[in-house]
C-alpha cells in the first residue's frame, strides 16, 4: 500500500489531483446511499448561484450514517492527506462532510479554489485536501466534477479555458482527491437523472473548518465516536494549546461527567517544552 500512496501523493502534488480506483467496496457506498436517501428526498434545493439552485446539499454525514466513517477514516486517503498537510500543522482536522445531488438542468458551477475561504497567504502552503466519493457514476454529461490540472501552481490565476478542464470518469468506490489550491467546479448536468456524490474534506488542524464540527457533533454525539474520529472532528488540541477547554484537551467533554473546576495542562510541541524547560533552568541556577 505504501507504494500506491507514494504514487498517488506524487500525482496529487504534481497535478493538484489524483484518483484512487476501487478505494472502497462499492457495497459500502450502496449502504451509505441508502442511509442518506431520506435526506436527499427531503432537503430543499440550494439557494444562490454558487451552491446551485438545481442542487441539493447537506452535511453532518457522520450523524446520518455509521457507514460515513469508512470514507472519513479511509487509511490510504488519510495517509495521502497527511503527506500534503502535515508540513504546516501538527494534526489535520475534518473540514466537512457533504452530500451533493446535482439535478438535470443544473448549469456548470463557477470555477473556484476552496482554499479561498481562508484569508491567509496563498501559494506557499496547502490549506486543505478534498475527496470526492461518487454515489452514482460521474461523467461529463451528468455533472461530474471539472478540474484544471496544474492550476494549483499559480493560485492568482482566477480563470482558465473551459476546454482545459478534465472530468474524471468515476465509479462508486473510486475516490477523487484534489488540493484546495486546485481550480475546480461541479459540471452542468445535461443527462436525464440526478448525479449524487459525497465530499469529504480535510484541513490544517489550526483552521476554522467550513462545517463547524463541534456544533454538528456536540459532545452527546461525539462521545459515541472512536477516539480517532472524535479527534478528527475537533476533540483534540492543536499544539501549542490551541482549541482547549479550560486549558484542557476538549476530549474531556466526552466523558460521562465533566468536573466543574479543571486545572490547565500544557499542550506544547516538543521543541517548545525544551525551550520552556531551558528557560526555567536558567532562572533557577
Outline of this structure?
With 285 residues, the protein is an alpha+beta fold. The chain has helices at residues 2-15, 26-42, 61-64, 68-72, 75-85, 213-216, 219-222, 227-232, 270-284, and strands at 17-20, 55-58, 92-102, 128-134, 146-147, 175-179, 184-185, 195-204.
Mean pLDDT: 96
Count of individual domains = 2
DSSP helical segment count: 9
Kindly identify the CATH topology of the largest domain.
Jelly Rolls
Structural write-up:
There is one protein chain. 28% of the residues lie in helices and 16% in strands. It has 285 residues and is of the alpha+beta class. It has 2 domains: 2-213, q2cbj1_9rhob like domain (Jelly Rolls), CATH 2.60.120.620; 250-284, no CATH class. The chain has a 6-stranded antiparallel sheet with strand order 1-6-4-8-3-2, covered by helices on one side. Strands 5-7 form a two-stranded antiparallel ribbon.
Question: Which terms would index this structure?
Answer:
285 residues, Jelly Rolls, alpha+beta, six-stranded antiparallel β-sheet, two-stranded antiparallel sheet
Any chance you could write out the topology, listing elements then pairs?
Elements: H1 2-15, E1 17-20, H2 26-42, E2 55-58, H3 61-64, H4 68-72, H5 75-85, E3 92-102, E4 128-134, E5 146-147, E6 175-179, E7 184-185, E8 195-204, H6 213-216, H7 219-222, H8 227-232, H9 270-284
Helix pairs in contact: 1-5
Amino acid at each position: 500500500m505504501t507504494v500506491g500512496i507514494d504514487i498517488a501523493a506524487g500525482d496529487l502534488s504534481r497535478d493538484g489531483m489524483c484518483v484512487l480506483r476501487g478505494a472502497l467496496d462499492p457495497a459500502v457506498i450502496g449502504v451509505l446511499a441508502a442511509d442518506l436517501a431520506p435526506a436527499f428526498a427531503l432537503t430543499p434545493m440550494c439557494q444562490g448561484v454558487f451552491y446551485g439552485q438545481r442542487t441539493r446539499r447537506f452535511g453532518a454525514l457522520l450523524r446520518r450514517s455509521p457507514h460515513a466513517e469508512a470514507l472519513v477514516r479511509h487509511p490510504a486517503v488519510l495517509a495521502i492527506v497527511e503527506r500534503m498537510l502535515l508540513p504546516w500543522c501538527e494534526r489535520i482536522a475534518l473540514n466537512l462532510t457533504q452530500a451533493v445531488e446535482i439535478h438535470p438542468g443544473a448549469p456548470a458551477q463557477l470555477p473556484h479554489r476552496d482554499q479561498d475561504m481562508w484569508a491567509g497567504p496563498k501559494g506557499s502552503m496547502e490549506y486543505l485536501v478534498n475527496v470526492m466519493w461518487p454515489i452514482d457514476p460521474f461523467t461529463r454529461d451528468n455533472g461530474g466534477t471539472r478540474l484544471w490540472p496544474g492550476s494549483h501552481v499559480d493560485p492568482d490565476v482566477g480563470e482558465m479555458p473551459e476546454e482545459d478542464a478534465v472530468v474524471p470518469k468515476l465509479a462508486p468506490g473510486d475516490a477523487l482527491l484534489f488540493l484546495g489550491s486546485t481550480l475546480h467546479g461541479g459540471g452542468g448536468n445535461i443527462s436525464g437523472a440526478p448525479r449524487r456524490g459525497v465530499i469529504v474534506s480535510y484541513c490544517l488542524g489550526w483552521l476554522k473548518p467550513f462545517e463547524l464540527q463541534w456544533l454538528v457533533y456536540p459532545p452527546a454525539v461525539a462521545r459515541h465516536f472512536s477516539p480517532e474520529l472524535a479527534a478528527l472532528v475537533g476533540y483534540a488540541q492543536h499544539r501549542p494549546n490551541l482549541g482547549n477547554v479550560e486549558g484542557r484537551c476538549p476530549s474531556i467533554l466526552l466523558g460521562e461527567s465533566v468536573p466543574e473546576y479543571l486545572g490547565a495542562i500544557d499542550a506544547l510541541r516538543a521543541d517548545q517544552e525544551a525551550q520552556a524547560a531551558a528557560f526555567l533552568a536558567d532562572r533557577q541556577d
